[in-house]
Amino acid sequence: MKSAHFTDVSLRVDGTDHTVHVDNRITLLDLLREHLGVTVPKKGCDHGQCGSCTVLLDGRRATTCLTFAVANDGAEVQTAAGLGDQDQLHPVAQAFLEHDGFQCGYCTPGQICSAVGMLDEVKAGSPSHVSDDLKDTAELTDAEIRERMSGNLCRCAAYPNIVDAIQKAAR
Length: 171
Description:
Blueprint: E1 6-13, E2 16-23, H1 28-35, E3 54-57, E4 60-63, E5 76-78, H2 91-98, H3 108-123, H4 142-148, H5 159-170
Parallel strand pairs: 1-5
Antiparallel strand pairs: 1-2, 3-4, 3-5
Helix pairs in contact: 2-5
């Protein structure tokens, strides 16, 4: 039954097209998890503070708990699971594996998506709060990585290994 409070939302998630009839108030995170069974993005704080729900939304990192699904009709969503394939991990995921960039793993999908998005931002020349020169973002220091990844929390405190993994992937 159609209702003024429900809308059809079409998304491409990890290469697969979906159309779902959802309540206009549902977040992208809840649509992914509850309606599509895509449980890779995690529900941590549900307030946009922890980054566990981070995905790449039309190529840019986004916290899905803070965005309405209807606002992203027609969007391309890429989760950490959609970044590589069974034969070849994405370079960031491979670096996380090689550098122990995770412990319990709960935040890892969001960390990986955020790292991929962050590295794309660096390539595009986007400065961060700690950038010394807003016109020169060529050097990706540990401080730059920590600042750019500050929206992703790790309760296990694997931060040194996460920074090392991102440095490796950046090379």
